[in-house]
Amino acid sequence: MKAKGHYADIISTHLAKPAAIELISVVPEPQKGKINGHTNGGIVNPAFDMSDENTDALSSACKPADQKSKASLITWTTFQRYCHAAGGLCMSFFTLLSFMVLTANGSLGYWGLSYWLQQGDGTANVTSSEQANVSLNPNLHFYHLVCAAMLGSLLIICFIKCFCFVRVTLNAATTLHNKLLSNILAKQMSFFDTTPTGRILNCFSTCQNEVDSAVPFYLNIQLMFSLMAISSLIISAVTFPYMLLPACILVTVLIILVSLFLRNICTLKKMEDISRSPCISLCTSIVKGLGTIHAYDKIHNYTERFKSLSDINANHFLLFNYGLFWISNIMDTLYVIMTLIVALLVVFISNDVCSPPIKALSLNFILQLSANSQYLMMSLISVEARFISVERLLEYITGSEELEGQLKVDPVSEDWPQHGVITFLDYKMRYRQNLPVVLNGLQLHIRAGENIGIVGRTGSGKSSLAVALFRLVEPTAGSILIDGVDITSISLSDLRTKLSIIPQDPMLFTGTVRYNLDPFNRHSDEEIWAALEKTYMKDTICGLERKLQAELADNGGNFSVGQRQLISLSRALLRNSKIILLDEATASIDAETDALIQITIREAFRCSTVLTIAHRIHTVLQADRILVLNHGQVAEFDHPDVLKQRPDSLFASLLTASNTVAS
User: Fold this and answer.
1) Do 426 and 392 sit in the same domain of this protein?
2) pLDDT (tens digit per residue) in 56-98
């Protein structure tokens, strides 16, 4: 005997210790004491554990193995895929070209103004004071026209640039969001089993928000100021070559500083993104279990746990912003030194070597460069950091989807299945690669129109049989045939639209009653009322103010669990599928209504194959045959009367135990 005491204390201690160790491993020293105090008061949800996340990986379940140890910097592949999402490389290049033309136009305007000032009054045999009077130049009207044309072209190019940039970035954000949504919806169930909800919500909220707003904002600033800096350095170097040496020194120092700071700042940004997911997961779990938290008086525990997780995220957020401002201040200092050097050169170099207008042009560009230095460097680093959100979206987009597009799909007829014959051929299934087999070599044949009751102890594979039939998990070996058609050879939509299920925990969607019963508007109101009458829900729906058009609360909150099960049963009656799966469909219904519903099921689904997963054995005693599962294998499969007569029957022992508990 390894432990002694109350059951609840033993379970809490056993589960809390490993979770506490995992959580503490990623928490800074000042937070460890707080987390320890929280885990002693309850079990830590693995969804709040960040030990499986690092600065280079999202999670082992959704990231390719060859990318887990890659560098923290964003690769060119990410930028390339962002350009493809924006509309293609050609559209992205055209947008970049509009930035370049706009910058060149502005720089050309400054040079034209300098040239105009250098020409003076257009004569060479007057005093220097008169020569500087540009209003006396005989070509004054021509210069006015040139300036007006350059200003007009600047406005037109600016409009084209803004239109193209907004169109490209909006298209990129929309494309990434749509691909993310479609890929998340197409993920295998193992993805949702291993990925906390907080990570998915984090991608759709914070990461998508940065792709929508932050990435275009900083990308626009970076492109504009980068091109302005390059044009300023080129024009100043051509017109005032003496500044080439300090410019080369400045660029070298900038490259060194960026290489030192950029990787660390990007790492801080990744840590900030990763540490936000546990906070969202905790909030989601609190909302779902708020009643239990109040009942056990654990409000303080969860409040302190949320504070600890928020502090961890806030630390990374502050360090990321401190890093940005620190490097921007260093850049400002360097540009001030650069401006001082150029100003001294302008003052001490003779006007005979370089004319005053050219000196003024060079000094203007340097001052402009210094004024925009902070925006330039912050945008450069911010673009790199914000593209981490694009990278995270792409990691989910390129993950493993359901095998819809990877398998060769055969078309099926509209009236398939015509009979509802189900055959399991040595079928094996496991939920994930590293988990044991839950269905181990099933070999059975279910005839058309049979009513099969599926029973077994907890963990025997009853619900896994439903998972296999709907292909929520792909088979490890073997196959399932429905009317002779292998279900892995047809599309998931064809398979799942031909089957109906009434789950133990019914799911209703926000919308009208009619939408929940007939979401594709394939049935008339008369047919819907007839289905509701068969499930004894007609009076309840008639009592609503708008009847079939009455709005349902979240997950049908304005109905009881039993009423939701009856609505799900009405939905199955409308679909009239050849194969019906009932997972304890009347578990939350009173005994009198249960008896009436059992009669309705037998009459309405008389021509269909009905599989009933029974947690209460007496509900399947009227079935044609009973399938008894044990450790994922077929233990018994025969008529209930035959099984009850066998002395060593597992079904007989389950029935005896059920009667004993009931008595």
Assistant:
1) no
2) 333 333 343 333 334 456 788 888 899 889 888 888 899 989 8
> Is residue 447, in this structure, part of any structural domain at all?
yes
Q: Is residue 545 part of a domain?
A: yes
CA distance 593 to 586: 9
Question: What is the DSSP annotation of 116-180?
Answer: HHHHTTS-SSS-HHHHT-GGG-TTHHHHHHHHHHHHHHHHHHHHHHHHHHHHHHHHHHHHHHHHH
Alpha-carbon distance of 154 to 149, in angstroms, equals 8
How far apart are alpha carbons 483 and 422 in whole angstroms? Answer: 7
End-to-end distance of the chain based on CA atoms, in angstroms? Answer: 33
Residue 169, domain extent: 76-397
* pTM metric for this prediction: 0.68
CA distance 621 to 623: 6
- pLDDT tens digits, 415-448: 888 888 999 999 999 888 888 899 988 899 999 8
Instruction: For residue 45, count CB atoms less than 10 angstroms from its CB and return exposed for 0-12, middle for 13-18, buried for 19 or more.
Output: middle
Distance CA 339, CA 346 (A): 10
Residue whose C-alpha is closest to residue 169's, from 206, 217, 225: 217
What are the tens digits of pLDDT across the range 91-111?
889 998 988 888 888 777 766
Residue 622: give its domain's CATH number.
Answer: 3.40.50.300
499-502 vs 579-583, strand pairing mode: parallel
Taking Cα atoms as reference points, which of 111, 413, 87, 71 lies closest to residue 238? 111
Same domain, 378 and 453: no
Which residues are CB-contacts of 200 (< 8 A; sequence separation ≥ 6)? 184, 396
Q: What is the pLDDT of residues 459-493, one digit of tens each?
A: 888 888 888 998 888 888 999 999 888 998 888 88
C-beta of residue 439 within 8 angstroms of C-beta of residue 462: no
Spatial separation of the C-alpha atoms in residues 576 and 498, rounded to whole Å? 9
Q: What does the alpha-carbon distance between residue 612 and residue 621 come to, in Å, rounded to a whole number?
A: 11
- DSSP character at residue 297: T
**Which helix or strand (DSSP H or E) is residue 33 part of?**
helix 29-39
Domain identity same for 427 and 296: no
Query: Which strand (E) or helix (H) includes residue 442?
Result: strand 439-446
Residue 621 is assigned to a structural domain of this protein: yes
Whole-angstrom Cα distance, residue 164 to residue 156?
A: 12
| CA 498 to chain centroid | 30
